[in-house]
Amino acid sequence: MEKEKYVICELSGQSIRTLREAGKPFWSTWHKDHSDFEQLTSRRSEVAINPNQLFLPNSNNKTLAQQEKMVGDFSKKLSKKVQGVEAIVGEASDYVELTFTYLGATGVRLFGKDYDYRYTRTKTPTVGSYVARVGSFDADDGLHVHDWRHDGGHSSVWVSPLVVPVESK
Q: Which of 26, 44, 75, 135 is the most buried (most CB within 10 A)?
C-alpha cells in the first residue's frame, strides 16, 4: 500500500460518543441526542487512505448510489495493483476515528484546510433518507458530523474511499 502512496491507520472500534467524551473536538453535537448513531463503533481493522488524493475526483454533486459505484470501480482497479484489499464507503464512526487518529500521528486535519474543508459522505443512516457526512475539520471549532440526503449531491460532499483488507467469506 505504501508503494501506492497510501497511509495505513489502525481503527480500534471507537464510537463517536467515546471520542467526544475523550475530549475530541466536534463542531456539531446534534448526535448527542441520537444514542444509536453515537454508539456505532468503527471497524476494528487497518484502513488505508491516500492523503494526496483523499477524495475520488469528480465525486461531488453525486448521489450516494453514484458515489458507491465510483468506489466500486476504484476498488476493482486498485485490487489489480494490490491484492487482498478492497475500497469501500465507510461508516461515520470509521471516518471520525480515522480523522482523529491521523491528526494524532501527523498533526494534519483530514477534511480540514488542506482539503478545502470538504466532506465525505458515509453509508451510515441518520434520519429518514439521510446519511451521515463527516468533514470540514476546523482548527477552532472541530470536526463536523452531520447529514445529507442520500439521493442528492452537493459541491462540498465528496466520497473518500477507505481501503480495507478483503474479508474472507
A: 135
